[in-house]
Amino acid sequence: MQVRHILRVKGHDIIAIQSSATLGEAAQILSDKKIGALVVKDKNGKLAGIFSERDLVHAIAATGAAALSESVGRHMTKALQTCVESDAVESIMEVMTVGRFRHVPVLDENQQLCGMVSIGDIVKTRIAETVSEAAALRDYISATA
Predict the structure, then answer these.
(1) In the chain, is it the N or the C terminus that has fewer CB atoms within a 10 Å radius of its CB?
(2) Each residue of 23-35: pLDDT tens digit?
């Protein structure tokens, strides 16, 4: 299965924030939307990084509550791992596991941002595949018995 199949079900919605926004604003969006990461865009609307709950925790641990008034750009993850819609779900799952991160922005064939997948999306997809395969095997066994 490819990443594009996850986006067909999940949708292509992207929650983004400007790099100049404060961590307090980012925390509010993460909480309101019940999500774990935001795509960060620069002043020209280009993909600049990703800001996750983990980035927020590291910032607060380093400077306390004062971090909430600091910019997202200062604390975001800039070494960004992306994928494309045609990537296999299994390969993205491996990249996420090895890199120890839970969200990956998805680019289309023109290298434009078109979605975001999380480890939760991938696990949900893999479980659905496994259940479907098990049902097909049961049906096959029942038909041949």
Answers:
(1) C
(2) 999 999 999 999 9
Fold of 3-144: CBS-domain (3.10.580)
Amino acid at 5: H
Note the pLDDT tens digit of each residue in 71-104. Answer: 999 999 999 999 999 999 999 999 999 999 999 9
Tokens 């479907």 — which residue?
132
Write out the two tokens for 129.
Answer: 């595949």
> What ranges do the domains of the chain cover?
3-144
Residue type, 116: M
Q: Are 113 and 136 in contact (CB under 8 A)?
A: no
